[in-house]
Amino acid sequence: MSVPLSRRNIRVLIADGETLLRSGLARVLDETAGIDVVAQAADGAEALDLVPAASPDLAIVDIKLPGLGGIETTRRIVEEFPGVQVLVLTNGHTDSTVVAAMRAGARGYMLKSSSADAVVAGVRAVTAGQYVLAGAVADRLAMMLTGNRAYSDLYDGLTPRELEVLTMIAGGNAYLQVAIRMQIGQKTVRKYVSHIYEKLALYGRAQITMYAVRKGLVEVAGADR
Q1: What residues does each domain of the chain span?
Q2: Mean pLDDT value across residues 75-87
Q3: With bands split at pLDDT 50, 70 and 90, how would you rate the model's confidence at 26?
Q4: pLDDT per position as a tens digit, 196-220
Q5: In what order do the strands lie in the sheet with 108-111?
Q6: What's the burial of 192, exposed, middle or buried (CB within 10 Å: 0-12/13-18/19+)?
Q7: Which fold has domain 151-214?
Q8: What is the 3-state secondary structure (H, E, C) of the chain?
Q9: pTM score, two decimals?
Q10: Rounded CA gap, 137 and 97, in Å?
C-alpha cells in the first residue's frame, strides 16, 4: 500500500544545466524537513530517463534546460508521468515563456532570485495541488488576463495565434519550423505573418523582433541568464 504524500517526505527531482546552482538547491532542499532530493539531471533527456526509477512527486525544471529545453521537458513529464508535478524555477519571465510553461502543464513558475524559504514554500504548495507564481510573474499575468487592459489591447489587436507566430518568428524560427511546431501549413503561417504586418504596420523580421522585445515576449539576444 502506498503511503499518502501528506504522511511522507516530498520526493524532488531537479533538472538544471547549471551544476553549481543545481547542487546548491539540492543541498537546501535536502536539509529541509519533509523534502528529499531523489535525483538531479543536467538536461531534459536525463530528467526523463531518471523519473521512472526516482519516482519523484515534483520536478523542478529550468526553462533554459539543455537538450529538450524546459518547456518540452515539462510537457513530456506531465504527459508521460501524470503523478509528477512540475515547478519551473528560472531567471527569465517573458510573457511567452510563462504562458508556454503553464500550457505545457507546469503548476508553478518561480524565479531563481527567490529566497530559499520561498522556493521551499513553492515546492510544498505545488505538491499540495496549488498553483504558484512569483510576484513579478503573477503581476504580469494578471495584467494580461484580468487587468484594466484587455489582452488584445496589450498586443495591439493580435489574436493569441498571431501572437504565438510572432513570438516564434522573433525567436529566430523559419516559417517551416513555425508550421511544424503549430501543426499548420506554411501557407497558413504566411497568412498569420501578413496579418501581423498589417495590424502592427511592421515590415520584416527585424521589426517583428524589436516589437517582441519591447513587449517582453522574447529576451534580448545575448542577455545574461
Answers
A1: 5-142, 151-214
A2: 95
A3: very high
A4: 999 888 888 888 888 887 776 765 5
A5: 35-41, 10-15, 58-61, 85-90, 108-111, 132-133
A6: buried
A7: Arc Repressor Mutant, subunit A (1.10.10)
A8: CCCCHHHCCEEEEEECCCHHHHHHHHHHHHCCCCEEEEEEECCHHHHHHHHHHHCCCEEEECCCCCCCCHHHHHHHHHHHCCCCEEEEEECCCCHHHHHHHHHHCCCEEEECCCCHHHHHHHHHHHHCCCCEECHHHHHHHHHHHCCCCCHHHHCCCCCHHHHHHHHHHHCCCCHHHHHHHHCCCHHHHHHHHHHHHHHHCCCCHHHHHHHHHHCCCCCCCCCCC
A9: 0.65
A10: 10
Residue 52 CA to residue 214 CA, distance in Å, equals: 42
- The radius of gyration of the chain from alpha carbons, rounded to an integer in Å, stands at 19
| Lookup: cell for 29 | 532542499
Number of residues written out for the chain: 225
Q: What is the percentage of the chain residues whose pLDDT exceeds 70?
A: 82
Give the C-alpha separation, 77 to 83, whole Å. 9
CATH of domain 5-142: 3.40.50.2300
C-alpha cell at 31: 536539509
In sequence order, what are the residues at sequence separation of 6 or more whose Cβ sits closer than 8 angstroms to the Cβ of residue 56?
Answer: 11, 12, 13, 38, 39, 84
